Amino acid sequence: MIKVIVIDKHQIVCDGIKTILDQTEEISVIDCVSKIDIIIPKLNTLNSYILLLNIYAINDNVIDIITKICINHPKIKVLINAMFDNDHFLMKTIKAGARGYLSKDDGASELKEAIYTLHNGYEYHGKSIANILLLNFLKQDKRKQLGLEHLTDREKEVLKLFGESNTNKEIAEELFISVRTVETHKANIMKKINLKTTVDLVKFAIRNNIIKL
After folding, report:
1. Which residue of 101, 132, 165, 205 shows the fewest CB atoms closer than 10 Å?
2. Sequence-distant (≥ 6) Cβ neighbours of residue 194 within 8 angstroms
3. Paired residues of 178 in beta bridges
4. How far is CA 53 from CA 166, 169, 176, in A?
5. pTM of the model
6. Are 49 and 3 within 8 A, CB to CB?
7. How many CB atoms within 10 Å of residue 42?
8. Ranges of each domain in the chain
């Protein structure tokens, strides 16, 4: 069972998310609080949970709390659901240690996929923020990457499909493999060519003309 704690200042939003997630047998919303700092005292009693944090405005205090949670409680995975698009804030959450980021344009299916992906030990970033992340990385990151010759043909297929904004499930269906296998391929790609985040996969694909913006 994947246990989720929802953090949102609106009870009606909490109730709606709980209804959506509780329809999935593998996911259970075990608590809902109005502020992220309310959950801090409880973290020592928790083991492996996903914190779904809904954010309505840029708040550097939240970044500080996320950083402390990720450092002191590495088994707790933070998933951001932001009601705005801001590349600077997005990068701050990633650097703070958040494992996933969704925006106001992402729906229930992406929320569920994000939770499954984080639970399996991987990062997840919604489709709607892909361009923001890509432009940021392409402008700032000048580090040399190893070449495509280090990847297998199947890994190149996965890289191309991921770069085209396909979800793990869509890639699995396209290649007739399991979602878990897709995640394993992604992890292997990142290790082989020295990438740090899943967004780097897309950046690498663009630089090597596997996909085009």
Report:
1. 165
2. 145, 146
3. none
4. 24, 24, 34
5. 0.66
6. yes
7. 12
8. 2-136, 143-207
